[in-house]
Design goal:
410 residues, mainly alpha, globular
Length: 410
C-alpha cells in the first residue's frame, strides 16, 4: 500500500509539472513578440509595457480569486479550464491589428493563466507532506522555470526561421493544449486516504467560508510581510523575463544570433535555481525558508549590477551572468510557496498561495510600464538592471521584517 501511494505521489507531481511546463507558452511569448508587434502596429514601448501590465493585473486578480476557489473546488478542472481558455485567447490575439483589442485580450489571458498555479499547488500539497514539501515545490517551481526555457527556445527557433510575431501566439500554445489534455485525464485532486503524520493537518471549521479563508490569511503578519517580499521578487523576475529579450534583440540580433542564445540561459538558470533552492531549504537551510530567500535576493541584486556594467557585446560573460541572475532571482520562489501550508495550514494553502501570488503580479504589473518608460526616455535598455538591483534589495528588506514578525507571533 505504501509503495503504491508513493508511486501515486510522484505521478501526481510529475503530471502537474508536465502541464505547467507548457503554461508559459501562453504568456512569456509576449516579450519575444513585443518588438515585432511594436514595429508592425507602430506602438511605442511604453504602450507595450501597458499591455504587459494588463496581463499581469488580470493574473493578479485571478490569483486572489482562484486561489480561494482552489480550496473549495477541483484543482484538476480549474487548471485544465484555464489552459484551454488561454490557448484560445492567444490564437485570437494573433489575428488582431488593434492595440485596444490586444490589450483587452491579454488582460483576459492573464486571468485564464491564473487558474493554474494556486490550484496546482493545492493539488501538490494534498499529496505531499511537511518533510518533503520543499522538495515537491522545488520540482514544481522548476517546471515553471523550464516553462520559460521552453518558451524562449521555441521563440528563438521561430524567429530564426523568419516567422512573424503572430506565429509566436499560435504555435507554442499547441503544446499547452496537449499537456492540459493529459493532465485532466491523469490527475486526481487528492488521495483516497488522508496523509499519515502530516505536521500541518487541515483545521476543522464548519463555518469555513470564502471570506473566513481570506481573514485567516490577512491576519497573519508574517505572511503579509512575506507576500510583500514576494511582490518585489516577482517585479525583479518579470523585469528580466520581459525586457531581457528586448535588450538583446535591439543589438542587431540577425547579424549576431548569439545574442538570442545568451537570453536562453536566463530561464535555464531559473529552472536550476528553483530545484536547487527547494532542496537546499530543506537541507542546508534546515527548512528555514526566510534565510534561503534572503540569500537568493541579495545575490540577485549583485548579479543585476554586474549585468549593467558588462557590455552586451561580451556574450561569454553576459551568458554566465544571465545564468546566474536567473538562478538567484527565481530560486527563492520555491522557498516562498511552502510557507503557505507551513504557516497557514493545508486547509488554506490555495488561498494563501493565491494571495501571495496576487502581490507578486500586482508588483510585476506596476513595474512593466515603468521599465518601458525608462527605456523610451534613456534610450538604453541596460538602465533597467539598476532598477532591478534596487527591487531585489527591497525584497530582502521585506523578508527580514517578516522574520522579525515571526519572532513576535511565534
Amino acid at each position: 500500500m505504501e509503495k503504491s501511494f508513493r508511486s501515486q505521489q510522484w505521478r501526481m507531481l510529475l503530471v502537474t509539472m508536465l502541464c505547467y511546463l507548457f503554461f508559459y507558452t501562453g504568456r512569456h511569448n509576449f516579450g519575444w513578440a513585443a518588438k515585432g508587434m511594436a514595429t508592425a502596429l507602430n506602438i511605442p514601448y511604453t504602450s507595450i509595457g501597458w499591455v504587459s501590465f494588463a496581463m499581469l493585473l488580470g493574473y493578479a486578480f485571478g490569483q486572489l480569486i482562484n486561489g480561494n476557489l482552489a480550496d473549495r473546488f477541483s484543482a484538476r478542472v480549474m487548471v485544465t479550464t484555464g489552459a484551454y481558455l488561454s490557448v484560445l485567447t492567444n490564437v485570437a490575439i494573433s489575428y488582431s491589428n488593434s492595440f485596444s483589442v490586444i490589450l483587452a485580450l491579454w488582460a483576459l489571458n492573464g486571468y485564464f493563466q491564473s487558474m493554474a498555479w494556486a490550484p496546482g499547488s493545492k493539488l501538490i500539497s494534498n499529496w505531499w507532506n511537511g518533510p518533503e514539501l520543499g522538495k515537491a515545490f522545488g520540482f514544481y517551481t522548476m517546471a515553471a522555470g523550464l516553462s520559460s526555457a521552453v518558451t524562449y527556445l521555441l521563440s528563438i527557433v521561430l524567429l530564426q526561421q523568419g516567422m512573424e510575431w503572430r506565429m509566436l501566439f499560435r504555435i507554442p500554445v499547441l503544446l499547452l493544449l496537449v499537456a492540459a489534455t493529459i493532465f485532466v485525464i491523469v490527475a486526481r485532486d487528492k488521495p483516497n486516504a488522508s496523509l499519515q503524520n502530516d505536521p500541518h493537518p487541515p483545521i476543522p471549521n464548519r463555518e469555513d467560508t470564502w471570506l473566513s479563508r481570506y481573514k485567516v490569511v490577512v491576519s497573519h503578519p508574517h505572511f503579509l510581510f512575506t507576500s510583500l517580499a514576494f511582490g518585489f521578487e516577482s517585479m525583479a523576475r518579470y523585469g528580466l523575463i520581459f525586457w531581457v529579450p528586448v535588450h538583446y534583440l535591439g543589438q542587431n540580433w540577425k547579424d549576431n544570433p548569439g545574442n538570442l542564445w545568451v537570453t536562453f540561459l536566463l530561464p535555464v538558470g531559473m529552472a536550476a535555481g528553483a530545484l536547487s533552492f527547494g532542496m537546499l531549504s530543506d537541507t542546508l537551510f534546515q527548512r528555514n525558508r526566510i534565510h534561503s530567500i534572503r540569500f537568493g535576493m541579495l545575490m540577485s541584486a549583485l548579479m543585476a549590477l554586474l549585468v549593467f556594467v558588462v557590455p552586451v557585446t561580451n556574450l561569454v560573460l553576459g551568458g554566465i551572468l544571465m545564468l546566474l541572475i536567473g538562478f538567484f532571482v527565481y530560486g527563492p520562489q520555491s522557498c516562498f510557496w511552502p510557507l503557505s501550508p507551513e504557516m497557514l495550514g493545508t486547509s488554506y494553502t490555495g488561498t494563501g498561495i493565491g494571495f501571495m501570488n496576487m502581490f507578486g503580479y500586482v508588483f510585476a504589473a506596476l513595474g512593466e510600464p515603468l521599465f518601458g518608460y525608462v527605456i523610451d526616455k534613456t534610450g538604453h535598455s541596460s538602465t533597467i538592471f539598476i532598477f532591478i538591483s534596487g527591487i531585489c534589495l527591497l525584497s530582502v528588506l521585506m523578508i527580514t521584517l517578516a522574520k522579525k514578525s515571526w519572532k513576535v507571533t511565534s
